[in-house]
Amino acid sequence: MTVDARRIRWSPGRGVLVLDGIDLDVPAGAFVGLLGPNGSGKSTLLRLLAGVRRPDAGTVRLDGRDLHSLPRRAAARRIALLAQESSTEVDMTVLDAVLLGRIPHRARWGPLGGDDVRRAEHALALLEVAALRDRRWSELSGGERQRVAIARALAQDPDVLLLDEPTNHLDVRHQLAVLELLAASPRTVVAALHDVGLAARYCDGVAVLHEGVVHAAGPPAAVLTPELLEKVYGVGAEVTTGGDGRPRIDLTPLGAW
């Protein structure tokens, strides 16, 4: 499923403009990384792409159809959003937390079925947290909660995954495992990422947000140049090409704090 945004503008009010004329094209099945410094609008853009917020101007479309023309339940079947901090309002088991992702697929007020449980258990296995299925949410570490939250998004069986810092709280092994899983997924994936090196390694494309606009977008090798990284992030960068043709990025600070 394709995702595109046209001339997206959004402000929380008080004269603050967070996004100003954002254009974004995400091909079906692509893994696109949203990059940019803190406060550049990555989280806001993900919420707009998910339909959680409405833009002040502009349009978000799924396969060419205006997102806000879809019934809410239909949109929930197609899009899963992982927020930067995931929580549950009640302390439940890990399996029950992942089964929340099946709600859009259940008949209204209908019970869970065997297929729902199978999909939830499969998602837990993919994220290597199947052994935690009967643990309480409150008993999990930050990294365990993050993997369970990603499993919940996968159990939703969406066409589009929108992920805000999916590697948050994860150790290095699990960061790589999650990004490999996303890169291999047939779904359309858009993820806000802080680590430009990991984005260069795993993403099909990147969009760099800076001062409320998409400063550059395209394949990582074309976008993540030393000049761009210095302008947007204020860092020095040495960019080389690995054996797989993808850029390898070594960052150094510029100046003092």
Automatic annotation (TrEMBL):
Residues spanning the membrane: none
Gene3D superfamilies assigned to the protein according to its UniProt record, in alphabetical order: P-loop containing nucleotide triphosphate hydrolases
PANTHER family per the UniProt record, alphabetical: ABC TRANSPORTER ATP-BINDING PROTEIN, HEMIN IMPORT ATP-BINDING PROTEIN HMUV
Keywords annotated in UniProt: ATP-binding, Nucleotide-binding, Transport
GO molecular function: ATP binding; ATP hydrolysis activity
Protein name: Iron complex transport system ATP-binding protein
ABC transporter domain segment(s): 3-236
SUPFAM superfamilies noted in UniProt: P-loop containing nucleoside triphosphate hydrolases
Domain of life of the source: Bacteria
